[in-house]
Specification:
Blueprint: H1 2-18, H2 33-50, H3 54-67, H4 70-86, H5 90-103, H6 108-121, H7 124-141, H8 147-167, H9 171-184, H10 188-200, H11 204-211, H12 222-234, H13 238-250, H14 256-276, E1 280-282, E2 288-290, H15 293-306, H16 323-341
Antiparallel strand pairs: 1-2
Helix pairs in contact: 2-3, 3-4, 4-5, 4-6, 5-6, 6-7, 7-8, 8-9, 9-10, 10-11, 10-12, 11-12, 12-13, 12-14, 13-14, 14-15, 14-16
């Protein structure tokens, strides 16, 4: 009985509270609508930049800059300068970076995008100077117990310098900077990046010796295996190349830039073996019997025609491939064109 009375009293209080008149106090807006608008515009500009709509991104950033508070404008100006650079509007971009560096002369948030912007602009000396400022900042900006962070900053700067030097044809500089990046960041992924550069510069033998020790790891990186595969192609060791590719292809969620060369190595190995080795097929009783020349030819055609295409004219990876691998691809493309005409 007591519980029943208690429930009635409680429900009466609840209903009474719902029936209370609204408060006379003015409703408070705890969210700054202007700030929300700036956030929305920045997100819109970022999305536009990602798909190459730089004019849209520029106009959106200018709108965000117009309504932003002073504390927000610094970050917006950095993005605007980068977008202007993408449109080759260098004069205004330079002015913006100069203004930003006057406000915060030792800010890596400004120096990093400026260095990358100058690199894309083709100003090698300007980019080098910006990266040197970053490294000076790293030298003095970390505590004695932050050696790993400092080395990471050095490694990243040297890596960017290496990419920039390679892009503009300063190959010796690119190799030296890559060595420095690897020195400050001695890990398997950094070594794979350096190996990629060695492959592109025509040093497959050196690359094989450089990367072989990494195979002792419990699970070697796919990037290391893929570069080794290309190096083996560079010295005409197709069986070893295929062995590396088999491991890469057995992994899950591997990017196409690693698996695509392996597809071509696979088909070329098959292509090379045909004149020299006999292919076998399993019969009903699992005994092996020799494939006829006609069956071999049919398999060869199917493999070549089904192979994923590589447009050598537009492939961004081509500059990093050994010369022998490019020749391999060209040979298979020529063969496929013949088959398609038949």
């Amino acid at each position: 009985m007591f519980r029943l009375k208690y429930l009635f009293v409680l429900s009466g209080l609840l209903f009474a509270s719902c029936a209370l008149p609204p408060s006379n106090r003015p409703q408070q807006d705890f969210v700054d609508q202007r700030e929300l608008k700036v956030i929305s515009l920045l997100a819109e500009a970022g999305s536009a930049s990602l798909i190459g709509k730089f004019i849209t991104a520029e106009l959106t950033l200018r709108q965000a800059l117009f309504i932003s508070a002073p504390k927000e404008s610094h970050a917006i100006k950095i993005q605007l300068a980068q977008v202007l650079g993408k449109q080759q509007l260098y004069e205004e971009a330079d002015d913006l970076f100069e203004e930003l560096l006057k406000e915060t002369p030792h800010s890596k948030d400004v120096l990093v995008p400026q260095a990358l912007y100058l690199s894309e602009k083709g100003d090698m000396e300007g980019a080098r100077s910006a990266f040197e400022k970053l490294m000076n900042l790293a030298e003095t900006g970390y505590e004695p117990n932050q050696v790993a962070l400092k080395n990471s900053a050095f490694s990243q700067s040297y890596r960017n310098l290496s990419v920039m030097a390679f892009k503009y044809g300063y190959l010796e500089d690119a190799l030296c900077y890559s060595y420095d990046a690897n020195f400050y960041g001695p890990n398997a992924l950094e070594m794979a990046r350096h190996a990629r550069l060695l492959n592109s510069l025509g040093f497959p033998e050196r690359n094989i010796e450089y990367l072989k020790p990494l195979l002792k790891a419990a699970t070697p990186l796919a990037e290391v295996l893929a570069e080794l595969a290309l190096s083996y192609v560079g010295v005409e060791k197709f069986q070893e190349a295929l062995g590396m590719c088999r491991i890469v292809q057995s992994r899950k969620r591997i990017p196409a830039e690693l698996t695509t060369p392996c597809l071509w190595i696979d088909i070329y190995q098959y292509f090379l073996d045909l004149p020299e080795k006999k292919r076998k097929k399993a019969s009903v009783d699992d005994d092996e019997e020799e494939l006829t020349p006609e069956e071999l030819e049919e398999q060869r055609k199917e493999k070549i025609l089904a192979l994923q295409e590589i447009d050598l004219g537009t492939s961004l990876s081509r500059v990093y491939w050994p010369e022998r691998f490019v020749q391999l691809v060209e040979e298979v493309i020529a063969e496929r064109e013949k088959l398609e005409e038949e």
